[in-house]
Amino acid sequence: MPEPATPATPVTFPPAFLWGAATSAYQIEGAAREDGRTPSIWDTFSHTPGKTAGGEHGDIAVDHYHRYRDDVAMMADIGLNAYRFSVSWSRVQPTGRGPAVQRGLDFYRKLVDELLSKGIKPAVTLYHWDLPQELEDAGGWPERDTAYRFAEYAQIVGEALGDRVEQWITLNEPWCSAFLGYASGVHAPGRTDPAASLKAAHHLNLAHGLGASALRAAMPARNSVAVSLNSSVVRPLSQDPADLAAVRKIDDLANGVFHGPMLHGAYPESLFAATESLTDWSYVQDGDLALINQPLDALGLNYYTPTLVSAADPQAAAPRADGHGSSDHSPWPAAEDVAFHQTPGERTEMGWTIDPTGLHDLIMRYTREAPGLPLYVTENGAAYDDKPDPDGRVHDPERIAYLHGHLRAVRRAIAEGADVRGYFLWSLMDNFEWAYGYEKRFGAVYVDYTTLARTPKSSALWYGQAARTGTLPAISEI
Ligand code: FCB
């Protein structure tokens, strides 16, 4: 559902609001084999035939590793006051264990210093899906030890950057790591084992808790520790009790499985019941829930589109493409009795329905569920088939409309009492969109993949004006 028509009164945000853009290491850095970096699961996966569109990979990506200074200057020109990026684990701790590689850490120090010199606040994500391959070879996320390895890595990065970075995010979208990585297999490491995916989810939770504690021990107390969840807005096709039960199940598997232990120190009982055919959860050891349930300073919400479900006849249920690629294997363990439907309405190039009301509803849900916890929208954005005009400019009015609608939804939530402190557009620039390779362009900045030249799209100019003034420009103003 669209937000109501453009209001007469200006849509103005609180003065300290962060206007950021987000990226992740594997999607932009390139330099895959430089300065001691070793392969992550995404290097291996993208180099495996048939796993990504056109066999594309992040070896060069958009070469941010070498162009970071220009990229930061471009962010400043656009008018951003915040930037969320992730650290490549195998660049700073190549085998996933043992001592750090200074050259790897130096890259991030230089990047952060460059950002700070331009008045752009860095927000660091420790894990955006790129597990060192050696740790996958040792069992990956279904293996408990991976969580302890993550804590060690968190300590290394916290010690190296904690004096200059205040905002920290342990994991990005653990749902994708667990269920796209180990159940549907459309993401690295490409396994299709639903029982292992639930184990992975628990160990990701444990990694978050151990990592949050390690960060706190390594950094000044003023720093903020958060996690970014792609919490789904799950809606029923009808009010039929069977459809409402389908919502309950998917809500547990999308949201409760992570925010339950992280925010409330418990998994939903209904999750245990729903998944008993696959697992007895005996890998949840005594004391784990307390380790996971660390006090947080903020919660990051990533939102793109809602999820519409109903009850299904298990015999007839088709496995569902999950938005990040398609597979014969469902990313939803033990949910053969749930059917997924396309939400009606206009869609982006990903086929994702545009629904800013979903973002509002998500923010209000966490406002109720975690009272007092500051919220950030750590990802929101849209892919379109952008092309330069003959004059070289890139006009993307659809993206401006998307951003406008979603930022208005954020503002409406703030007016209703939500404590939203910032918004990070996905993504700063076009980049490697995982299984889709380079064919989906999410950037506010256009990247010519032949020359790697960057050209801010009209949405970047629109968003920059919003960032500079704290007020959303009218769609027609750019
Ligand atoms: C999110 C991911 C991000 C990007 C966007 C489109 O799920 O965190 O890396 O792929 O989707």
Automatic annotation (TrEMBL):
**UniProt source species:** Streptomyces aquilus
* Keyword annotations of the record: Carbohydrate metabolism, Cellulose degradation, Glycosidase, Hydrolase, Polysaccharide degradation
The family this protein is said to belong to: Belongs to the glycosyl hydrolase 1 family.
Catalytic positions? Answer: 173, 379
Recorded GO molecular functions are:
beta-glucosidase activity
The reply on keyword Acyltransferase is no
Q: Which GO terms describe its biological process?
A: cellulose catabolic process
Keyword Hydrolase annotated = yes
Q: Tell me which GO cellular component terms the UniProt record holds.
A: cytosol
Q: Which Pfam families match?
A: Glyco_hydro_1
Q: What is its EC class?
A: hydrolase
What is the official name of this protein in its record? Beta-glucosidase
| EC number(s) reported in the record | 3.2.1.21
**Gene3D superfamilies cross-referenced by the UniProt entry:** Glycosidases (3.20.20.80)
Q: Which residue stretches belong to region Disordered?
A: 314-334
> Which InterPro entries does the record associate with it?
GH, GH_1_N_CS, Glyco_hydro_1, Glyco_hydro_1_AS, Glyco_hydro_1_beta-glucosidase
Residues annotated to bind substrate: 27, 128, 172, 304, 426, 433-434
Superkingdom as given in the UniProt entry: Bacteria
**Catalytic reactions of this protein:** Hydrolysis of terminal, non-reducing beta-D-glucosyl residues with release of beta-D-glucose
